Amino acid sequence: MHIWIDADACPKVIKEILFRAAQRTGTELTLVANHYIPKPSSPLIKAVQVGQGFDVADNYISKHISSGDLLISADIPLASEVIAKGAHVINPRGEEYTADNIQQRLTLRNFMEEMRSAGQASGGPPPLNQGDRQNFANALDRWLNAS
Description:
The chain is of the alpha/beta class. It contains 5 helices and 6 strands. It has helices at 12-25, 56-64, 76-84, 102-117, 130-146; strands spanning 2-6, 28-33, 45-49, 70-72, 88-90, 96-97. Strands 3-2-1-4-5-6 form a 6-stranded mixed beta sheet, with helices on both faces. β1 (2-6), α1 and β2 (28-33) form a beta-alpha-beta unit. The longest helix has 17 residues, at 130-146. The protein is globular and about 45 Å long. The N and C termini lie close together (7 Å).
């Protein structure tokens, strides 16, 4: 059992929740990013800095994640890849991506990308709030207790 973090876009507050959970449960955790990510000094917590480039961090995660591992990411195409390998995915707002809902999420993502390209939609999700943080912590605890 291992937790992987797509750390380039993961909010700091979510990483802090993950650091505490890893220490509390003795779970290994790896942050993957294309820039330096500060982390606590712990033998359980590792950071991997990959090269610059499109999807370099995603490709590293996809190559190294195993069935039963957990990925923290809002990247829906990456989530789809690792779910196919038997991994679990929770986004920073606490939503669990599963084999049952990932295709719907991919379709919606692609539709919204087309709308933004056509100038029909703009902006992204609202800032993370306290409810999102609590939803994430609850989803993480459910996964940790089930594993």
